[in-house]
Amino acid sequence: MTTLYRNARIFTADTTAPWAEALVVEGSDLVFVGDLPGAERSAGTGAEVVDLGGALVVPGFVDAHSHLLMLGEALGQVALTDARDVATIQERLRAARDEAPDAPRLLGRGWLFDSIPGGRPTAAMIDEVVADVPVYLNANDYHSCWVNTAALAELGIDRDTPDPIGGRISRDANGDADGMLYETAASQRVWPLLSQVQTEADRDDALERALDSYLAAGVTAAVDMAFNEDGLATFDRAVARRGAPLPFTALAHWFIENTGDDEQNLAQVARAAELAHRPDDGGVRVIGIKLVLDGVIDACTAAMNHPYVDGSNADPIWSLERAKVVVAAADAAGMQIALHAIGDAASDLALDALEHAVAVNGDLPRRHRIEHLEYTSPETPARMARLGVTASMQPVHADPAIWDNWAAMVGPERAARGLAWPEFIDAGVRLAFSTDAPTAPYPALPNMYVASTRRSALDDSYPPNHPEFARPLAEAIERGTREAAASCREDERRGSLTAGRRADFVVIDRDPFVEGEESLLSAQVTLTVSGGGVVHRA
Known about the structure:
Layout: E1 2-11, E2 19-20, E3 22-26, E4 29-34, H1 36-43, E5 48-59, E6 61-66, H2 68-74, E7 78-79, H3 86-99, E8 106-111, H4 123-127, E9 135-139, E10 144-147, H5 149-155, E11 167-171, E12 177-183, H6 184-187, H7 190-197, H8 200-216, E13 219-227, H9 229-242, E14 249-255, H10 262-276, E15 284-292, H11 320-332, E16 336-341, H12 344-361, E17 369-372, H13 380-387, E18 390-393, H14 404-410, H15 412-415, H16 421-426, E19 431-433, H17 444-453, H18 473-480, H19 482-487, E20 505-508, H20 512-515, E21 525-530, E22 533-537
Parallel strand pairs: 1-5, 6-13, 7-8, 8-9, 13-14, 14-15, 15-16, 16-17, 17-18, 18-19
Antiparallel strand pairs: 1-2, 1-3, 3-4, 5-20, 9-10, 10-12, 11-12, 20-21, 21-22
Helix pairs in contact: 2-8, 8-9, 10-11, 11-12, 12-13, 17-18
């Protein structure tokens, strides 16, 4: 079937021809993008004609760093990001418990450290309002979990429970666990327990919520950056239910847990390599591995070259010796490697490991990535450029409404270089924008607003966060589409509206190129087309 879309302002994200007025879709692909007469000739007679009424069209967004199942789960949990004090958090937890009195647990997400006095949440704060069932509240960055006393008991955590590699169980003055679990203390204890009590139906619902939400927001592809066996099975069931490919492109990086044992770590890499060779059934494709090298700045768990303002610091979750073994093996297997590195010591470690892989494996086609890069050594961008490493960064993490605590942890000098996108661009590094949902809002248009203004998409009362780092709107969209696709080695197939590429595009009811970036906050996606098919219509 051939469809001609006409009467539109089409931003193609193609540097050779950035604007067009019509496009032609045949099957799943674009066969023409350009002027209307050329489109009419290409479409021929008998094509369906869709008049877009002068609306703006952009490529489908690619969320190059996301957590699909976690996003779907988060959309069904108590939202706490805008609860800016303990009393408000407690009110929401009490209300949620009242609404579901028979629920065996209460789950919430998104709370900010500076909403808690001294940034020190305790189990007692939750116990005041919900003590009869376990309560698990993921922090906004999903690197820490705040729990109540019932949850500590369910987890089997007491004063004698040791800290895991790369994590910490917070304790009070008496040495008893006080309700905060940092890094692997959360990911290796809370996440497995909640996974065990989830049903397949729970996961299926979460995936469907995530896909529906993304398509409604104009996102047609995403990369899951903490993929595992549960996620794989859930996607396989989704394809089986439909008896057809998903209306969404899902790529994944297999999460590699640091067990402290090279043999066990390499077994995880081998499993990822095995999955990378599965036939493409239209569900999810495993394209690489993911290592979390450090934590986050808000909780002072990111590995820094110099201590935080309070004098503390954090060790990396992976030592260089352990990371080198895994990175070299994945590189030799032709897999893409994504390395979470938020602190400058972690990004230095990431590049040391990648340089080792190049030295060991020689000249191979590779396009590895470092994720987040919130604060880096001044030399980092040049090192990345030499190695051809992509900078995968999230504009929504620079939202001024969540920035104060971040800046307070590192001090004004380092905060002045936080998420400094131009440093990477000037060094010649590929820069891709994503959201890291659900650690931040998943909608694409507010993400582009923060990228192009460094203003808050959450609360407009805040001043811009280093506006000198903002990117022009056209460039911001390119980094959320074309460069995001390139970051996951999909640039030959998607990311720009170019003849021969997949027909993934979005129609928006307001034009920020004409009305200004502010209109991104009220703009709505009226039509999403993925693989040539309409998958969302407002």
